């Protein structure tokens, strides 16, 4: 069973679009645990290897989302629909409607990207949310 606790306000740092800067800082000043949370689109950018998540510097890659959905069992029609979706949220909704845990897979990929920049003693988890702030994906501490 997962135990929830209230973090002190000082434990929360809003990183905005600059995930790379936060991760690089933690390489020099490690902490025991890092929880990354953000909208699915931003988390998908991190999963694809982008460290600056601002729309001027990186774009959501719908092809990557479709490829990852294919690894979860998406057929050709679903992959094509995802690649032509208007937003990452729409691509995610299509995957979820097909019963595919794409949100979790993208969070695992984002966690793995973060791990490449952090010292091994920093445990990382990642949460992705929809536009209403509801969780749509999670990768537990690793």
Brief characterization of the structure:
The chain is an alpha+beta fold. The protein is built from six helices and three strands; from the N terminus they run H-E-H-H-H-H-H-E-E. It has helices at 19-28, 40-47, 62-71, 76-83, 88-97, 102-117, and strands spanning 33-39, 123-129, 135-139.
Account of the protein in words:
Helix content is 44%, strand content 13%. By secondary structure, the protein is α+β, with helices and mostly antiparallel strands. It has one domain. A 3-stranded mixed beta sheet has the order 1-2-3. Helix 2 (40-47) crosses helix 6. The longest helix has 16 residues, at 102-117. It is elongated. The chain starts with 18 loop residues before the first helix and ends with a strand.
What descriptive keywords fit this protein?
single chain, 142 residues, alpha+beta, 6 helices, 3 strands
**Spatial order of the strands forming the largest sheet:** 1-2-3
| Major sheet size, sense and barrel closure | 3 strands, mixed
The residue-averaged pLDDT reads: 87
H/E order of the elements?
HEHHHHHEE
Provide the gyration radius in Å. Answer: 15 Å
Work out the number of β strands. Answer: 3
Q: Based on CA inertia axes, which overall geometry fits?
A: elongated
Overall domain count: 1
Share of helix among residues?
Answer: 40-55%
The structural class is alpha+beta
Q: Give the number of helices.
A: 6
| Cα end-to-end separation | 17 Å
Strand content: 5-15%
The low-confidence parts are: none
């Amino acid at each position: 069973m997962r135990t929830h606790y209230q973090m002190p306000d000082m434990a929360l740092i809003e990183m905005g679009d600059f995930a790379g800067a936060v991760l690089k800082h933690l390489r020099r000043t490690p902490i025991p645990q890092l929880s990354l949370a953000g909208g699915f689109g931003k988390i998908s950018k991190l999963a694809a290897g982008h460290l600056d998540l601002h729309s001027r510097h990186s774009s959501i890659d719908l092809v990557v989302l479709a490829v990852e959905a294919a690894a979860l069992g998406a057929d050709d029609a679903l992959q094509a629909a995802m690649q032509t979706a208007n937003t990452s949220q729409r691509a995610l909704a299509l995957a979820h409607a097909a019963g595919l845990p794409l949100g979790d897979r993208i969070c695992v990929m984002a966690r793995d990207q973060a791990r490449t920049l952090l010292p091994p003693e920093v445990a990382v988890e990642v949460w992705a949310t929809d536009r209403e702030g509801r969780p749509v994906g999670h990768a537990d501490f690793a």
